[in-house]
């Protein structure tokens, strides 16, 4: 099983669930979702897990099958732990007006999405370009702030916080050439994703607040001790995964 993916904290759990006797998945990482989709089409990958920044549609080949994992995953912000805004669970963009931002322009749609988000509230901050490993290091030293996946976890020197109003979101998609290939790996991806989501305090609190738009196969529910469990509610039916067709060219 040849797996491709953009960055995700669900990857380790997904690969672990796919691994079994006679099946050892391989992994190709790429910051470009479009590049991964082309590799699936060309037969270089069997499946690809990618994200699509809202307002920045991916170039999806016609012959691919797509399945939506999350219709809209909110993007959070990572800021220095001693930043004044880090004292609150929800941060307004105006609270970051004087900060420098770091964006990875090689991630499809990322720069456009972040730029649009900032312009919508009248901000035109200084922006540095670099990969997100570098960004995390610079956040820790107080040099920049950056958008991050909600499953990211705070550390002693960094804080992950929700952005007020959830102004930036991405759609999480699994792509393959056939429905059978999607069926073979999607349940493991779904379980791994929600496992990673529960491990993030900020994302868990957002989920408990009813912010989710696409429920996991086992609905997320709050339990005692401030934890979120993935358990089936009595009498409930899980939502079937939604497949989507790639757009057809006009003419």
Automatic annotation (TrEMBL):
Keywords: DNA-binding, Transcription, Transcription regulation. It comes from the Bacteria. Residues 229-251 are annotated as: Disordered. Residues 234-245 have a biased composition (Basic and acidic residues). Coiled coil: none annotated. GO terms for molecular function: DNA binding; DNA-binding transcription factor activity. GO terms for cellular component: protein-DNA complex. Residues 5-194 form the LysR substrate-binding domain. Belongs to the LysR transcriptional regulatory family. This is Putative LysR-family transcriptional regulator. It comes from Streptomyces lividans 1326.
